[in-house]
Design goal:
The chain has four helices and four strands, in the order E-H-H-E-E-H-H-E. Helix 1 runs antiparallel to helix 4. The longest helix has 10 residues.
């Protein structure tokens, strides 16, 4: 079965609120078995505009990644992010291995 990935690129305007968001996502991360592959860290825009924070989360499937994002647990955490960061969230299906 192909893995699912959530790719996040954000610019944080309120680090304190974003920190609450990041902490609150732990419940959903554990429940849905998300594996962080990249979270913050060094980056370089090779083409196009960059964002100050980049995250890649791996899930057992595309459906599991979508379930994580739409879950009550994640949506509760998301409330802390609204107004604290602007960016893009994308779910991507990986190759079937």
């Amino acid at each position: 079965m192909a893995k699912g990935y959530i790719i996040v690129r954000v610019d944080v305007s309120d680090p304190e609120a974003y920190g609450r968001y990041a902490k609150a996502t732990a419940v959903a991360v554990e429940k849905f078995g998300a594996k962080p592959l990249a979270r913050g860290g060094r980056y370089e825009a090779l083409e196009g505009p960059s964002r100050s924070r980049n995250v890649i989360m791996e899930f057992e499937s595309y459906e599991q990644a979508k379930a994580y994002y739409h879950s009550d647990e994640y949506q509760a955490a998301r409330e802390h992010r609204l107004g604290a960061a602007e960016g893009e969230f994308v779910v991507v299906e990986g190759f079937d291995s």
